[in-house]
Specification:
CATH topology: TIM Barrel
Number of helices: 10
Pfam families: GDPD (PF03009)
InterPro entries: GP_PDE_dom, PLC-like_Pdiesterase_TIM-brl
Radius of gyration: 18 Å
Strand order of the largest sheet: 1-2-4-5-6-7-8-9
Low-confidence stretches: 1-6
GO molecular function, one term: phosphoric diester hydrolase activity
Protein name: Glycerophosphodiester phosphodiesterase family protein
CATH class: Alpha Beta
Structural class: alpha/beta
Domain GP-PDE: 8-241
Strand content: 15-25%
CATH architecture: Alpha-Beta Barrel
Shape: globular
Length: 248
């Protein structure tokens, strides 16, 4: 009988995006209601220096009406203009602080733009209670390096499309983990194996995988001792986790 490593956290990717507009307060609240263990969301900076929660560099994909499209990069727009755009069922792009106010679970805060780091670090420093439930993450080593300087006490995790992700990290993922003093790797499945995971774990790193799209992915996560799986559909994922934990 295989040994199942628990616990295993279900991470709501941009909230409960299968049922609610991604990266909105409604999506985060629904994901918490469904029962995710953690939430993942993305941070950018508006032209007037507000840390906002948005995945893309523009509003073109997520705006629910044409009037919200074609406005250009959000980095060139004041937050007042960004917040006026409906991104689904009357929801707006929230600020980082609004998401902190609206949530209670552990947060994976993904930095999409390095220039957002000083503002994010300032906010977290002003909210020590929330700092204890945050892990900063990024695909960008430069963002993690800046976070190491400005928010050294908040743990960091590197996100990769797979392992070894040699095109982005020519010196190797392990080199980036050391340079940024990251404590976790969140990897896409490509190239990820049990031996790779165990090697990283033996070196002291936590490992999570994304995306999780079915019960078989959850079973792998449990068997490999992954700390988490990132899901678009938390409601379905709760069922996958319950099924995967049934040992026959």
């Amino acid at each position: 009988m295989p040994v199942l490593h628990l616990p295993y956290a279900l991470v709501g990717h941009r909230g409960a995006m299968a049922e609610s507009p991604e990266n909105t307060l409604a999506s985060f609240r629904l994901a918490e209601k469904i029962g995710v263990h953690e939430l993942e969301f993305d941070i950018r900076l508006s032209a007037d220096g507000i840390a906002i929660v948005l995945h893309d560099a523009t509003l073109d994909r997520t705006a629910s009406e044409e009037s919200g499209r074609g406005l250009g990069p959000v980095a060139e727009l004041p937050y007042e203009r960004i917040a006026a755009v409906d991104v689904g069922v009357g929801e707006k792009v929230p600020t980082f602080e609004e998401v902190l106010d609206a949530t209670t679970v552990t947060l994976q805060v993904e930095i999409k733009a390095v220039d957002a780091v000083p503002e994010v670090a300032r906010i977290v420093a002003s909210r020590p209670y929330d700092a204890r439930r945050i892990r900063f993450t990024s695909f960008l080593p430069d963002a993690l390096l800046r976070l190491r300087q400005l928010a050294p006490d908040v743990p960091r995790g590197l996100i990769t499309v797979g392992y070894p992700d040699a095109e982005r990290h020519t010196g190797g993922i392990e080199e980036v983990l050391v340079e940024t003093a990251a404590s976790a790797l969140y990897s896409g499945w490509d190239g990820l194996t049990r031996d790779v995971v165990r090697g990283l774990q033996d070196t002291g790193y936590e490992v999570g995988a994304w995306p999780v799209r079915g019960v078989d992915d959850v079973r792998i996560g449990l068997a490999w001792g992954l700390v988490s799986g990132t899901v678009d559909d938390p409601r379905a994922a709760r069922e996958w986790l319950a099924e995967a934990r049934q040992v026959v």
